[in-house]
Amino acid sequence: MTKTRLDPLSLLAGLAAGAGAALAAGALFQRRPERAPAQLLVDRALSRAYWRAKARGAIRLGPRRRFVVFSDHHKGARNRADNFRQCEAAYLAALGYYDERDFTLILLGDAEELQEESPLSVTEAYANVLRREAAFHPGRLVRVYGNHDSIWQSPDAVRRWLDPFFPGIAFQEALLFEAAESGGDEQTIGEVLLIHGHQGTIGSDLLGFLGPAVLPFYRGFQNLTGLGGTSPSRDACLRSKHDNRMYRWASRQKRLILIAGHTHRPVWSSKTHLDKLTEELYALLRLAPEFRPDNYSELVANKKRELEDRQARYPPCDDIVKTRPAYFNTGCCRFEDGDITGIELEDGELRLVKWGARQGEICRFILEQSPLEELFLYL
User: Fold this and answer.
1) Best CA proximity match to 84, nearest among 374, 254, 335
2) Which of 183, 326, 189 is nearest to 259 (CA)?
């Protein structure tokens, strides 16, 4: 039998052609990121989720309709790999506040960490938190599944592990609201889509089935060493890129606001906290001398320090300029300092809020707020 000899020149030519094609594709997608394969996957997944939610029927927003949205608690097993422990007190205080004021509680995915832990270990470790959430059920509790608690897509799993806390609860992929003028029953002015946000990602959505087989080994490593716990300050580039993709999809829709979780970064009106601080600093620097307050130098210095601190803790990476208020993100309930963030929808008003300890007391802070009517004017 004659052996085929490998021609080095042909091999080099093939490698060069492949490298050239890769560079050409990279250059094209850099100029036209909306055509990149990763963007198209997210586009298709979000569009499918939107139309499925619309087919189920939208919820009409109106007077005396109050909703609070939290996501990404990642409740674990109270071990060294559990990042929710430090936020438990703030979250329980928030639940008490919203329960007293008749809010509907929306958990927007990844409430439980079920890629790294078993349902039994989580429900036993945080039975007290689940019972507090159960005060909203039935009637005022909505559960949306994420990539880390995707097991809740199975009705059998829900019945086995969650029925003791939330009898008969059903999970959704997405939730759709209709907003009306002045928050009433007038003409619809726009829609609000709530979704976890992992849809269309290769690791979390398309290959999500690999997680349960691989992550128990990672959990063991975390438990032994206390290392490797993820937080909003890590994987900044990946989170920025995915925020960009969700924004691109939302900004191309007509009169639609997208509220997601998944990236663990609070986003208001398509802008991160770092973006907002930068705008505030520039606004101060642009003030004409005759309009500057007596403590102007102190205000500028404080804003610069705040901006530098934020940039050091949560460095920007690959963020794009976002001009339309189409994308919002809840942030998460597992920040390292014990704070949590979420989004409120109340009487036609949208708010980004933070709960955390200040001087020994857990308090609610309004970070941003705006009437939905005003936001839809720009969409």
Assistant:
1) 335
2) 326
Place of tokens 């691989």: 214
pLDDT of residue 174: 95
CA separation for the pair 258, 240 (Å, rounded)? 16
CA distance 53 to 174: 6
Helical spans, DSSP H, in 57-152? 88-100, 119-125, 127-133
Give the pair of three-digit tokens for residue 300. Answer: 């500028």
CA 194 to chain CA centroid, nearest Å: 10
Per-residue pLDDT tens digits for 192-236: 999 999 988 765 555 544 444 454 454 454 445 444 444 333 556
Q: How many CB atoms lie within 10 A of CB 369?
A: 13
Residue entry with tokens 């994308």: 327
Question: What letter represents residue 28's amino acid?
Answer: L
Helix intervals (H) in the chain:
8-31, 37-56, 88-100, 119-125, 127-133, 155-161, 211-225, 236-251, 273-285, 296-313, 372-376
More confident residue, 58 or 33: 58
Q: Residue 227's CB: how many other CB atoms inside 10 A?
A: 9
